[in-house]
Amino acid sequence: MQYLLNTYARFDVQFEKGMSATLWDKNGENYIDFTSGIGVVSVGHGNERLANVICSQAKNIIHISNLYRIEPQEKLAEEIVKKSGIEGGIFFCNSGAEANETALKIARKYGEVNGEIKRYKVITLENSFHGRTISTLKATGQPKFHQYFGPFPDGFTYAKDIADIYNKIDDKTVAVMIELIQGEGGVNPFDKEEIQNLAKFLKEKNILLIVDEVQTGIYRTGEFLASNLYEIKPDIVTMAKGLGGGVPIGAVLTTHTDVLKPGDHGSTFGGNYLATAAALEVVKILDEEKRNGKLADTIEYFENKLLEIAKEYPEMFESVSGYGLMRALRAKTPEIRDEVVKKAFENKLLILKAGTHSVRFLPPLTITKDEIDEGFERLKITLNSLEK
Ligand SMILES: *Cc1c(COP(=O)(O)O)cnc(C)c1O
């Protein structure tokens, strides 16, 4: 590790093998993975179908650049548009931050070419998370991330909550960018009606609604997009984490297909054969899980286990939040939360932190009931060991 920059407080473990939601370390000890690499490994570790597609694609063409047509890229774009029910076009990139950068560029250009004065301001929310590049960091409404890295690009305004967005709009506002369920912020879903009213209002005012679905997208909430769950059709949706099942890929879907022209934006790696062939298979696998009812079953099973924990340990937890397999237990204090995550690891259960008080759960969407049972068994052992 000595040649790596010290940007992560890592657990001292090296995993060697993975299968579904189970990981094995070098000593052959098994761990239950309720993190899926932060919502990425949506079809589980060692997924044979995904591995086969990656393998055969790698033996043929991995990459040719976007100077030429790429068949799986075109197919994946079609799948995303059709599954989302949002009529539009797609730009592919390699990460969530890049997808959000793209969304911001589309909004900026839209604000430049539509209307008398240039509109460029983007309103985002406090407690949001949109990425680590300079502008997505500025879009992220958490001051703790901003220290050291200024000066930042102009044009970002923070609203306290959805209601406060209306107060922050002025004649330079071109877009509002939000998560529907704030992930890193603590797994906080917004109210459906409030979001629908906002979407309607913004449409009337010709202000773009950008929904950051980097964490919520690709069946994480049980629907293809959280936007489908909220029954809205945003102007721009960004996706990344779960889309490639671990192969890096980001995507931007927009209904404003005429804004970006050749030369306005690009990405060397974005949408290459390997990544889009992989993502196409991921979407196919998860679509099947959705259609045959397994995804809904798993979600219900997992949710009931969480509700049980909240009921059995009221001195530690206040509530369960989230949708689908993007969930959290809200701890009474940050100290309890930190202790639970740390001790869970000692009991060979991988879980995540989010916000200040939340224990976050983002298991693979294909996790088995046995793995869920085993994971919650380990969670109970952990909680019992912490009870005074
Ligand atoms: C993880 C995340 C990002 C950043 O994605 P990267 O791939 O790490 O750049 C942006 N927005 C949301 C909502 C996220 O959860």
Describe the structure.
- Pathway: Amino-acid biosynthesis; L-arginine biosynthesis; N(2)-acetyl-L-ornithine from L-glutamate: step 4/4.
- One of its GO terms (cellular component) is cytoplasm.
- Homodimer.
- The modification N6-(pyridoxal phosphate)lysine is found at residue 241.
- The chain is an alpha/beta fold.
- It has helices at 36-39, 48-59, 71-84, 96-113, 134-139, 162-168, 192-204, 226-229, 273-291, 294-312, 334-346, 369-386, and strands spanning 15-19, 22-25, 30-33, 89-93, 121-125, 156-159, 173-178, 181-182, 188-189, 208-212, 236-239, 250-254, 317-323, 326-331, 349-350, 352-354, 358-361.
- The protein has 2 domains: 15-33 and 293-387, Alpha-Beta Complex (Aspartate Aminotransferase, domain 1); 49-290, Type I PLP-dependent aspartate aminotransferase-like (Major domain) (Aspartate Aminotransferase, domain 2), CATH 3.40.640.
- 38% of the residues lie in helices and 19% in strands.
- The strands form 4 sheets. It has a 7-stranded mixed β-sheet, with helices on both faces.
- 50% of the residues are buried.
- The model has no long low-confidence stretch (mean pLDDT 97).
- Pyridoxal-5'-phosphate binds at residues 95-97, 100, 129-131, 179, 183-184, 212, 214-215, 240-241.
